[in-house]
Amino acid sequence: MSTAKPVLTPGATIGILGSGQLGRMLVLAAARLGFKCHVFSPDPESPAADVAHRMTSADYSDTQALERFAAAIDVATYEFENVPATSATFLSKRVPVLPDPNVLATTQDRLAEKNFVAALGIPTAPFVAVSEAGELSPALAKIGRPAVLKTRRFGYDGKGQTAIGDGADPAAAWDGVGGQACILEAFVPFAREVSVVAARGQDGTVECFDVTENEHRDHILKISRVPAAMSATSAQEALRIADTIANKFGYVGVLAVELFVMRDGGLLVNEIAPRVHNSGHWTIDGASVSQFEQHVRAVAGWPLAKPVRRGRVEMINLIGSEIEDYRKWLTIPGAAVHLYGKTQVRPGRKMGHVTRVFAE
Question: What single string gives the DSSP state of each residue in 6-59?
Fold first, then answer.
C-alpha cells in the first residue's frame, strides 16, 4: 500500500512515528490546517504527546499496537530517522507511509547513504567501509589522517563517532564506537557547515528554503543563520543538490541535506536527514511557510507553498540548563520563544529554541 498517494481533507488523521519536539511542531502545524494527529512512541510523556489528538505508547516492534495504529490513521510519517525501518515497512502494508520506508532504510545506514550520494555524482568526503577491527588500519592507510570513524547506524549530534588523528590508537577508536560496523571518512578542512531544507510534494514539485549556515558546539547545533555566508553560485549548487536527492528518492515530505562548504566554494554532502530538521526551525517565524507545514502539505497530498523569507534570521537552540534563562528572551523585542515542554533538563538536551528576524 505504500505506493498509494493519499489526498487528505481537513479532519483526517496523520500518524506520526516518534513524539519528540519535531513531532510536537508537526502536530501544531497539522492542527493549523485542520488535521488531527495520532503519535506513536514508547515514551508516553513526550513533547508531541502533550499536543496530539491521540497517543499510542508502545515499542516500535509491537506489531499488535502498530496494527491498531494503522487502523486509526489515514497516512503515516515519522519525525526522526531512527524509527526502525521494519516498523515503517510493516505499516506500509496497511496504510500509506510517507516518505517511503526504503528512504528510511537507506539513510539509516551511513554507508548506503554515502554510496547513494556518490552514485549521483555528488561529491562527499572520501570514505571506506570498516566492518571489523582488522580493517581499520588498512582503511587509515587509504584515507589518511586525520579521519573520522563513524558507526554505520544510529548516530546523531556527534554520537557514534570519533576522530583519529596522528598518533591515535586505531584499536582504542574502534572500541570507542562500540566495535560495530563503521565507515571511515577523511577529515575535510571545510570553511563552514550549511544545510538545505527541501520539500517534495506528491506531484514531484520541489520547494527549497534558503541555504542555512549552522554553528555547532560540542557536536550539537547551536545557531542557524539565514542567509548563509556563501557565494550565490555555491548557494544555487546547494539547492540543486537537494533537489536532485529529493527527486532521485522519489521523496514525499521534507528532508534536509547537510553540506560542507570548502574554502574554494566547493560543496561536499555530509548527511541526509529524511525528516524535518533542527536547522529549519527558523522557518516557523522567519518564512511565509514553515518546514513543518510543508511536510504536512506533502504527506496530505496538498500543494506545496513557495517559501518567502521575511528577512535575515537567526535561530538559537536552548540546550540543557540554558532553558532556565528562557524568561530573558521574553523581554527581547522581536524574539520568538519556543519551549518543548520537556520536564527533565540534561546536558546536551535540546529544550527549546529562540528565533529572531532582522531587516535585510
Answer: ----TT-EEEEE--SHHHHHHHHHHHHTT-EEEEEES-SSSTTTTT-SEEEE--
